[in-house]
């Protein structure tokens, strides 16, 4: 059986047969039970025993897509999770994310949520990657979509400007974000060198 080149991260009850389903909890019988917010792979690869595929070797730079639907607000270590996902994707691979917006009801009604997100939550993974120790690749935002609540839909229908809607509590329920793994450009590498130089000088 062909092993999917797509990961459904934190699959839970949203099990997808055309994805490799990974979850920290075995309750919904994912393909792989593992915590991606910790040390996920050793030396770039790790073999897991699965019911559906037998032994599966998961390796860096080998997946076309990762999806995480209502997952990142739960993970213990977000930076490690994002780093692991960056490493797992091939160059050009896409990380598709759905998370609660920080001014929404859903952001904090669940006691297992440890963070919420807004449109600036992705800057360290795209523009300021050097703070995370990323030296070869980073993410680029392909798209960012706001999922309006009924209040937000009413404001949009009344012609209210988008920036007013976004800063009004309870108008946005969640965000859909698509991040692409890209190689650091020459400009990125110059910024990385400058960051390392000033850090050493400090």
Q: What topology emerges from the helices and strands here?
A:
Blueprint: E1 6-9, E2 20-23, E3 32-33, E4 45-50, E5 54-59, E6 63-69, H1 78-88, E7 89-100, H2 106-109, H3 123-126, E8 137-148, H4 150-157, H5 162-166, E9 172-183, H6 186-201
Parallel strand pairs: 1-2, 1-6, 2-3, 6-7
Antiparallel strand pairs: 4-5, 7-9, 8-9
Descriptive account of the structure:
The chain contains six helices and nine strands. The chain has 202 residues and is of the alpha/beta class. A seven-stranded mixed beta sheet has the order 3-2-1-6-7-9-8. Strand 4 and strand 5 form a beta hairpin. The longest helix is centred in the C-terminal third of the chain and has 16 residues, at 186-201.
| C-alpha geometry | globular
Counted beta strands? 9
In CATH, the topology is named Rossmann fold
**How much β-strand is present in the residues?**
25-35%
Strand order of the largest sheet: 3-2-1-6-7-9-8
Largest sheet: 7 strands, mixed
Q: Give the mean pLDDT.
A: 96
Provide the gyration radius in Å.
Answer: 18 Å
Integer tally of domains: 1
What count of helical segments does DSSP give?
6
What percentage of residues falls in helices of 4 or more residues?
A: 10-25%
Q: Poorly predicted ranges (pLDDT <50, ≥5 residues)?
A: none
Q: Give the N-to-C terminal Cα separation.
A: 54 Å
Order of helices and strands: EEEEEEHEHHEHHEH
What is the SS-derived class?
alpha/beta
Query: CATH first level: which class?
Result: Alpha Beta
